[in-house]
Amino acid sequence: MSEIQKEQTLEEKWENATIANNFIFYKVMRNNPAVCKELLEILLQFKIESVQMSQEEEIGIDFGSKGIRMDVYVKDGDGQKVYNIELQTTNTGELAERARYYQGVIDVDLLKSGQKYKDLKTSFIIFICIDDIFKQGLAKYTFEHLCLEDKKTKLGDRAQKLFFISKNCDKLLDEKQKAFLRLLTSNSSSNDFTEKITKLVADAKRNTQWRKQYMEWEREKVYEYDRGREEGSKQTAIENAKNLYANGVSVEIIAKSLGMTEEQVKEIVSAEATA
After folding, report:
1. Is there a contact between 48 and 76 (Cβ–Cβ < 8 Å)?
2. DSSP letter (8 states) at residue 261
């Protein structure tokens, strides 16, 4: 595919992007704190006095540990609660583990050296999904740590993980929640809040700087995917070379069958022998 064709494909993606696009969702929420606050109030169904948008797009831990890049990370005005909203349009099969990891990273980031564990903030990890990843037919799944023996005693660690399912939104009682979740799948606004978001999305797509960032973001995703696939193929070839050599196949035949040079095969089997 030529560069022109790739560029046209990216242009089409940009033109067709809605609030269900992670990049657009991030830009709209991060640059409109009042809208982000309103969305949190709709999803959590309690009032929030004010919010402070995090200045950090990524949270790291230690060298060698996996950091996280969050869609929306905010604190309330008095700093007693933190909220992380993640838009997840595809089921990666690891969202539960991801929610667990995000919670841990946020806690490590919030609790400074010398502080007491009681100083941890009340936290809400919110995933907005399209499909029902738990397959129980609910529109909202709220998780807290609960004693398995009596099924009622809560751990009381002030941490909640919530998953909203767009495709099951008709099962919600709250109309504002329904309207927002429907917007994700239909791109059709049905109340003042969703109309406001629709206008902000249109404004975002007229921002030439954001458009350029989106193009770079999409290209980086493709690059990372290709690099991962290439690394996977390389590792598979190495393992195949080791297995063939262990079964008595000559270096020459291994090199020809795997598209390697004989020197590369010798390096692989030599490293295996000294490991």
Report:
1. yes
2. -
Where would I find the H helices in 130-207?
175-186, 192-205
The pLDDT confidence band at residue 232, using thresholds 50, 70 and 90, is low
- Find the domain containing 160 and state its range: 3-205
Distance from C-alpha of 195 to C-alpha of 80, rounded to nearest angstrom: 31
- pTM of the predicted protein model: 0.75
* Residues 163, 140: Cα–Cα separation, whole Å: 6
Tokens of 240: 């195949």
Bridge partners (DSSP) listed for residue 81? 122
User: Do the Cβ atoms of 104 and 145 come closer than 8 Å?
Assistant: no
**How far is residue 256 from each of residues 36, 235, 252, measured CA to CA in Å?**
58, 17, 6
d(CA 15, CA 91): 24
The string of pLDDT tens digits covering residues 244-253 is 888 778 888 8
**Alpha carbon distance 216, 206 (integer Å):** 17
CATH code, 262: 1.10.10
Strand partners, 85: 72, 126
Whether residues 110 and 193 fall in one domain? yes
The amino acid that residue 3 corresponds to is: E
pLDDT one-digit tens code per residue, 123-166: 999 999 999 999 999 999 999 999 999 989 999 999 999 999 99
